[in-house]
Known about the structure:
Strand order of the largest sheet: 1-2
Shape: globular
Radius of gyration: 25 Å
Number of strands: 4
Number of helices: 16
Largest sheet: 2 strands, antiparallel
Strand content: under 5%
Structural class: mainly alpha
Amino acid sequence: MQDMNLLNQWIGGAIKLDRKQMAIAHSGMEAIAHGWKESIEMAKYNWDLSLQRKSQTYTGRYDAGGDFQKWKAMATFYEKYGDPVQKRAYRTLDTVVKFNNSPWAKYSANAMGAGDAFARTIIGRQYMIQRAARQALDEGIDPKHLNDFVKKKEELFRKEIFVKNKYGMWIVSDKAAAMAGDEAAMTTALEGSIKGFEAIANIPGMRAFFPFVRTGFNYLDVTFQHTPVGLFRQKYKMLTKKGGPAPHELAKYGIRPEDVAQEIALAEGRVAVGTMATLGIVAAGLSGNITGNIPWDPAERKRWRDLNIQPFSIKIGDAWVSYLSLIHISEPTSLGKISYA
């Protein structure tokens, strides 16, 4: 997702012919390639933590490892003060807890946590390089030679973005980079009128359900940022208001004053890309080069059959390419066989 953000940022700069923002975005794209080694190491580190039943680096709001340790600590209390029924109940639940916290029962969660750490490390490396690029441009470095310069100087900015833990692993600490990681992982805290949904997590038995609720809202928010609605978001209005944003407003998002233009370019690039994509899809639909479900009208179904038009597909050249897998629609058997009956 972050590489798409960098492309959006580049497009946002291109719209205003801001070569500085375009160069900074391009330097971030370069970071993806040579940041992989460190990101893979971080992913493996978090995977190993999960196998040891320890909390992963980016645990989010809840510390599963800490909760497990507190649960285990209750065993002594129940054995000493509990009656026979309470002891049996604890032992029964403890069996379930052990199973749910076993490495293989949590395989998917472990993998997602490792992937999250990988993505956040990549994002942190991109922020490092972009800061190095910005300073280089401010010092008058020719954009043509920017990437070579940045590769030599990026490590000077590591401690602005990362902090080293006691095991020698670099963890993202910069607020803006951390929030970009939250957005990529769909774990951004809810705000505004939907913040009340956070209360779901306080209902007994609903803590595990809350992340799914938050993910849905985050997905919708990112989607709306790629439409003109994104220009009415509080963050964009703050960045572009007359007189510029106040220091405390920037601090809320971890944005430095010198990075305001970069954030505006990202927001406007997202809207431009989303709008162009929407117009492209509309144009393709009007010209018959993108289809939905099979028509209800018998005559139209016959026309599709005669012309070999495929449902839920985009026409590329003379071939139809299905997009069903992209929108996660369960494909009925009849569609798989293109039944026009």
